[in-house]
Amino acid sequence: MSPFLNTYNRVPLTLVRGQGTRVQDDAGRWYLDAICGIAVMSLGHQHPQVTAAVHAQVESLMHVSNLYSVPVQQRFAQALMDLFGGPVFLCNSGAEANEGALKLVRKHHFLKGESRPQILVAQMAFHGRTMGALALTAREKFSRGFGPLPDGVVALPDAELAQAVNAQTAAVFVEPIRGEGGCICFPHLPALRDACDRHGALLVYDEIQCGLGRSGTLVQQPAPDIRTFAKALGGGLPLGAVLAGPHLAHVFEPGDHGSTFGGNPVACAAGLATLQEILEQDLTERCRVLGEKLRGGLEALGVCVSGTGLMQAAHLEQEAAPVVARMRDRGVLVCGAGPRAVRFLPAFTSTEAEIEEMVSALAASL
Ligand code: PLP
Question: Whole-model pTM?
């Protein structure tokens, strides 16, 4: 019997090592990693600065909980706040970040004495798999058999979200670039911002997959009330964050929310080193430029392409899974984004030649 509960369909590949943009299997074969642990390893594997920061932190302090202040956690939260606005709540994953955002939304309206039962989300959104995040995901495929979930979530097509905001709406959760739903850019952020302002609803950007430069834009505008981050945030270690606008700074009080591991010092050290590298090397711009090359290469194959930066999907006229498998056989790791889309989430540190290698692998696998 497998030692795992039956939650994953793993492909027949055992990975034992990563170095830069490549990973190696247990038979010694190297693969170009164009998934990066599902948008996590933005600087590639064993990035020297990240590895050094982790080693140094492990050797000084691994964990003390949030009963105490820890310098690296403080520096990391400050860096996030300086960049994106804050203050910040640190947790361990994307679902947990969205749970925190949901609680912040509810408490904000509670303090204002408002009853706003409705949360608006996009159809085909993916916000995670814990009960609150699953409710926000609002897709039968993920939630079947797990009810009852927190209620009040209404899922609408992108084009209908802004006009649906009203006095009953507590918040709108949206991925600026939808990840699991096929790398689709949300085209109506200004209209959504405007509608939320007019009706007193909060706007939440789930930047868990598209954030931290991957889309070619570091700070998504117009500014939302809350941003959630995870995945690449921890440079390969589990880390999530809820960033609240200053007007929400006093909503939570001690005891309202928390996490034993949230903002773990080693994860924060990795996250801080990653963020510094993204800023110092202007890797957001690199994502934008490489993204154009990726798009050009994919479009030249005659497939429909969506997404932006280093978060793009090729939409096929055939099932994606066999194509993904053939690309793996050719030494390039990608994943699906829905049944007929192949998703590319390469490292920000990829070279132009590696982008070409990804495109050629797809061309040969169609
Ligand atoms: N939100 C988005 C946009 C995601 O892509 C994901 C994961 O794929 C999540 C939330 C959930 O993150 P996690 O798997 O870390 O809980």
Answer: 0.98
